Amino acid sequence: MIGLGLIGGSVLRAARAAGRTVWGATASRDDADRARAEGFDVTTVEEALGRDPEALVVLAVPMPALPDLLRKVPAGTRLTDVTSVKGPVHDAVHRYAKQVRFVGGHPMAGTSRSGWEAGSEDLFRDAAWVVTPEEADDHLNDVMRLALDLGAHVVPTTPEEHDEAVARISHLPHVLAAVLAAVGAGGGPLALALAAGSFADGTRVAGSRPELVRAMCEGNRDALLTAVDDALGRLGAARGSLASTGGLAKTIEAGHEGRTMLVNQPPRARVTIDLTKPGALAALRNLGARGGRVVGLNGSTADAETS
Amino acid sequence: MIGLGLIGGSVLRAARAAGRTVWGATASRDDADRARAEGFDVTTVEEALGRDPEALVVLAVPMPALPDLLRKVPAGTRLTDVTSVKGPVHDAVHRYAKQVRFVGGHPMAGTSRSGWEAGSEDLFRDAAWVVTPEEADDHLNDVMRLALDLGAHVVPTTPEEHDEAVARISHLPHVLAAVLAAVGAGGGPLALALAAGSFADGTRVAGSRPELVRAMCEGNRDALLTAVDDALGRLGAARGSLASTGGLAKTIEAGHEGRTMLVNQPPRARVTIDLTKPGALAALRNLGARGGRVVGLNGSTADAETS
């Protein structure tokens, strides 16, 4: 593990709990001290990267720190990451660390707190863990096995489709939470004194560390612009409708429909995917595009659920 | 109690639990049957309104149902309400039920579910209960005592200031939740499969019954337009900044500051307000404007907390 914040620290704990041999490195002295105090093997980035050429190296650093880190990764390394954006990470890996084997990853789990102390070995239990493979091979299987060992299910897709999806369901929520928190605070002490569940829920993620939110959102700029434009269009339409007719039917009903689709996702059917066959990569990506997921690996066969 | 949905049903339960004699009426046969099954006295609207001229009548119906109901209220009735908008309710009371004594009210509590079954006698515990008195008199004291008996604290303000505040911290959150849910669902099955905490929190209130959300938001049209315009301006500025410089610093930092103000509200000092003195109404409104609240009544003295 390189990076021992919320996500990296949780991977380290969960991988050890799953019986794996783990070690880590971090630029944060606080996180390093706390991990060592819990009995973890924390060393320098260079030593961590060089210790075992067969190890699966997991990068868990903010996007802006990635280029410098990738330059230090030895050729031949088996690499994955847990960064919240995938297209720019793939680009950076190809540019700065060309001789590595890489499968992108992104566990959809977190809290509004950050750093080693916010993590836990249960963070990934029942979470979606995105992988963005460029081929179906043993390295992909190892990355999927890590996610499964940590209690997650695996959602295979492309970097582009991942980035579009998370712009809508992860990065836009942070932007809207920030906007809502600022508008609410603009109402002064009375407004804040009256704030209840809807405002507390809608602004919760605005409590996250601003530099982490910025790194996440700014790192997915192109896809986030599309999602923000969609939101601006819908909010502008709501404004126009409220001003002209006094009604919000279309806005509120579309929102209720979207929330219902989230809550009532269709029942899933079990399927298996033979990972040794030609077309396995396309089958995995197709599974993810339809809202499906890999829930187990038996040798070179993936047990999957699809809707 | 007229209206036995989430809020009305919870007032009925909590008032009985506080030792009061209660009865109710509702246009919903389902809610009436369920309330009767729990031993409550449920009758017709006319009988409920006419039974005791000294009773404190609480109206808990959606805004659109209010004019017809107010026409049925006997002259001299001591009236309050729990509607989520106050200016239009004051206007409707003055227009349709001129011979009543009225103090507007609005408990800041709820869930995304609705109807009698969603209610509970604990719903108002530690909640803010807004009152919008037009004078400081014994009827105001009775309305405040009801809120205090139900476990709430009382926030006095004007109808206009209430409506501006709740547009920001209650109605705008519903509009933004609807917009976010629709943008997320627009990402298809993959996006919904990846949705985690930030999307679930940000869209929770979009699961509320659309007709109730519409009644609430559309009933506060003017103040909500101002809040939506504020949000549109901030979201547009975020869009412009992300597109031109790639940065979201101002948006994310303002949001973090707003959230921090919500979470870390300043410590409160105890004060008392003599409700018999001239200027008592202004003192109460000033208390609310500064984020303060009434937490107890001793005879004609209000125990209050102010920041």
UniProtKB/TrEMBL annotation, chains A, B:
One of its GO terms (molecular function) is prephenate dehydrogenase (NADP+) activity. One of its GO terms (biological process) is tyrosine biosynthetic process. Keywords: Oxidoreductase. Residues 1-273 form the Prephenate/arogenate dehydrogenase domain. The keyword Oxidoreductase applies. Pfam families: PDH_C, PDH_N. The keyword Oxidoreductase applies. Signal peptide: none annotated. PROSITE patterns: PDH_ADH. Belongs to the prephenate/arogenate dehydrogenase family. This is Prephenate dehydrogenase. It comes from Lentzea xinjiangensis.
